[in-house]
Amino acid sequence: MKKSLLTRRTFIKKTSARLAGAALATAGTGSLYGDIVKKTNTLAILGGSPVRTRPFLSTWPIFDESEEKALLKALRSRNWCCLKGNVVYDFEKAFADAMGAPYCALSNGGTTALSASLHVLGVGPGDEVITTPHTFIATINVICNAHALPVFVDVDPDTGSMNADLIEDAITEHTKVILPVHLAGYPADIEKIMSIANKYKIPVVEDACQSVFAEVNNKKVGTFGTTGCISFQEWKSLVCGEGGAILGGDEDLMHRCAAFVNNGRDPKKTKSGFPYPGSNHRMTEFQAAILTEQFKRFKKQDKIRQKNGKYIEEKLKEIPGLKPRKLYCEETRITYVRFELDYDREYFHNVSASKFAEAVQAEGVPISGEERRYTRGCHKEGMLEEHLNSHAFGAAFSKARLKKYRESLHLPVMDNIRPSGKEMLSIEGKTAFLGAKKDMDDIIEAITKVAKNTDKLT
Ligand SMILES: Cc1ncc(COP(=O)(O)O)c(C=O)c1O
Q: Do 317 and 283 reside in the same domain of the chain?
């Protein structure tokens, strides 16, 4: 068969972006499009038959008799609390090993893992923690609950991740910690963040709650900083309902983290009583029993997601106007729990990403079209003003400092993220990418079909 003249390279060279969608719709003989175009029919959203009618896997969490047995074993042991059992402590060792971290302390959530980290690093009233507005609110809650100010640096418009180039300007004499977030399996610009932190000798707490097994240069995120925190909450990729882990390499700090989550007991049991500050943030043996089984499952799921994710990525990047999200380092392992593609509407008859996604959904494929996951930055949340007006903040910060802080809460990129034109498509790979090759081909076919027919969506 004669090779198409409409390969991606020649296509881009010869065709203006605006004409691309129309050309695709009529030519339909590109290397990727060859077979699929023959099947192209009316878009399902316009009354045609969908690419797929069988639903994609959406059940989560996934379990079988292994979890049931483990749970029953923990129940029957009558050691429900980790102070009596060994399931929590065994998992700490196994998880530290798998992550390449010298130490791990489990807790009852990612939030408490972050709190423990800030506590052992001495974050308290009057301090500042440099972080990102583009995260789940828990990242910011732990800073405010320590009566410190979350100092927001703006996001990189290409990724929605903390813009590392803005960190140095945000450092003051009060900066106690830098707290970057690795969102949805995509590493933040962690190597640059670490080099700035090292230059100023500021500890880093990584919020890797959403990104177990993401890597940069073969090193897992969560193991770059002074500590790294993971969440095992049910919506994440490695789960036990609620749960968290603190990873780290500094023996004394990690010792204090383990004590902090256990009401201040000495983890080595060499000191009696309650020699350290703490609270009760312990994980139960039930949670750890599920987690132990889920970890075996997670490792298999992670391999499947890698294979399917890479396959889809290779195919979809051939479509002009779609581009895998920017990475900060060539050697990056994303986890595909969510897969993001930059979407340039100029190639699609000016059809918005959300409209495009709606059409793909009608083809039977789960996808969303949006700017970024957290379109409203945490710096806009009401809880911040509540803290600033509280007795504790009033005692810790001068009026002038709080006034200056309020005035700093303007983040040009984050606040204007929608008009910036950086649209994206995202697929919840956590479940969708666990399917067979045929399922992946359906995803590719549905997106390709819509890409060719955006002229009909205007
Ligand atoms: C980025 C981020 N940080 C922290 C947390 C808090 O974790 P947890 O729900 O386990 O307390 C989450 C959980 O959603 C999160 O997504």
A: no
